[in-house]
Amino acid sequence: MGLKRLRGSIRQAIVFALFVGLLMAAYSAYKGFGQSIDDAQTDWPVVGSILPRTDDLTMPSVLEIIAGVFDAPRGLDEAFGSIVLREAAFTLREAAVGFSAGVIVGLAIAIVLSSSRLLERALVPHVIASQTIPLIAIAPIVVIWGRKNMDFLPWEWHDWMSVSLIATYLTFFPVAINGLRGLHSPSSEALELMDSYAARRGQTLWRLRLPASLPYLFSAFKIAATASVVGAIVGEISAGVTGGLGRRILLEAQRYTTGPERLYVAVLGAAALGIFVFLCISLLEYSLVRRKGTEAIL
Amino acid sequence: MTAESVTSERMPAVEIRGATKVFNPGEANEVLALDNIDLNVGAGDFVTLIGPSGCGKSTLLRLVAALVDSTSGTVLVNGKSADQARLDRDYSMVFQKAGLFDWRDVSRNIELPLELMGWRAADRRRRSKEMLELVKLEDFAHHHPLELSGGMAQRVAIARAMSFEPALLLMDEPFGALDEMTREHMQNELLRIWSETETTVIFVTHSISEAVFLSTKVVVMSPRPGRIAAVIDNDLGTRDDTARDAPQFFANVSAVRKVLRAGESQ
Ligand SMILES: Nc1ncnc2c1ncn2[C@@H]1O[C@H](COP(=O)(O)OP(=O)(O)OP(=O)(O)O)[C@@H](O)[C@H]1O
Ligand SMILES: [Mg+2]
Description:
The structure holds 2 protein chains of 2 kinds. In chain A, about 75% of the residues lie in helices and about 0% in strands. By secondary structure, chain A is mostly helical. Chain A folds into 2 domains: about 1-55; about 80-290, MetI-like (MetI-like fold, Orthogonal Bundle). Chain A is globular. In chain B, the strands form 2 sheets. Chain B has a 6-stranded mixed β-sheet, sandwiched between helices. In chain B, strands 2-1-4-5 form a 4-stranded antiparallel β-sheet. In chain B, a hairpin with a 4-residue loop joins β9 and β10 (about 225-235). In chain B, α4 (about 105-115) packs parallel to α6 (about 150-160) and α5 packs across α6. The longest helix of chain B is centred in the C-terminal third of the chain and has 19 residues, at about 245-265. Mean pLDDT of chain B is about 85; it is low at about 1-10. Magnesium ion (MG) binds near residues 57 and 58 of chain B. Adenosine-5'-triphosphate binds near residues 55, 57 and 58 of chain B.
């Protein structure tokens, strides 16, 4: 059993490596193609007019990008990769706090709404409407609000907490919606069974509705986890918070001409962070819900 | 023995007086599911309810379980209102689908009602072991519901239902989804458990032979509106596989069939 699983993981790792290699090859191929159109300085028939040209500035080579991970930016003696790692850790904290708060808020909403059809019908449209407000619009408000109005809290409010709040705004939604579906998922027989045992509402929630919701919740958690990273990065960028991957991406975009590969490294770092949190949730799901026969996506 | 305990022994487990159930009253889809039902079930009886689909067997069972309210009439269980009996955990239900929680192993499924009643973990564990012995699944305590056959799952459901030793067992076509061989085996098992535990059983079935083999009393129902067509006392003496071939068995089967036919042709 263990060996089988190990072999499965090795196979998945090989597939993943092949996929990354394929991506790099495709990137390099397009780079070569786009550059040769550019070098020819003529629009190739058909493709030349629809496909964008490239050059070393817009598409640094794969080797340059890899080198960008290990090179230290001018004036510093720290590899850029390690700087990105530090920024990623900063963003991860914002995302993790935002995610956790989002899960709590989302679950609370789901539990309250599932307790009454009337509440559900009245409030679900509002929950959905909340997501139509663009993140870019609320981010600065949240940060300003955080700086001015959070002094009633027993702890000191930092800007990164405002970014977490923005991430929460993205994460509570899938948790609330999927959670609601999950809480409604038990069959009427299962609910009657609990009634026949004279189970209290809380007991039915804890021993039936919530466990039955786990598969629904975990698919929401996976969406929410990646969304929390996106929320944190967008929050950092649009709120002008110092620190984090979003900030780094903005910075490297401003000095793009002197080091395009660094922007690529920062963006890839953001992607890696998203994959990382996704895998963390998958792993948690695997250890918790494995019994149901669900496979972790690894 | 005191006079009081004699009367409580005599007290019927279930007493239904003029029970009527109307679903969706006053609406276009109004259904008179049960019409003026009178029924007594004595303590220790094994009563089967039989009748064509839609005649209100499940509804009658749910009325006893207080999972639906009667529109009029009274339902007493152990001398109290059905709902009080539910709150006192006087009965347990078994459905056609085993309805095991697949995030719990077999043993913890059996412990579910005990958890709800606040039993200590060690006591729950011990009882669940006893129950697994009762249904002969000792080796499957830590198996998963998805790994069980239909018959095994239903045995776990029965173990779960019996775990807190309810006085009354309400079963709604519990063997309906099983093949004939498993079904006969389960019938034998249920009778063994019934005689070992002295539980009162109300058992819904579509099968005439099942009703006759299992019960001390067969209640035949007729549809639209649901009424009791006949109550047939059914004394087979010892119930084992030889009883399935006894002349008395076949005589009672035809008696039940006759009443069912009469109800249909009305
Ligand atoms: N929740 C409900 N709402 C409305 N009508 C119902 C409800 N439950 C049962 N009925 C109706 O009551 C009648 C009796 O249903 P019931 O389920 O008790 O029959 P049954 O004898 O158990 O049938 P079956 O043998 O098919 O299980 C049917 O006409 C059914 O449509
Ligand atoms: Mg039924």
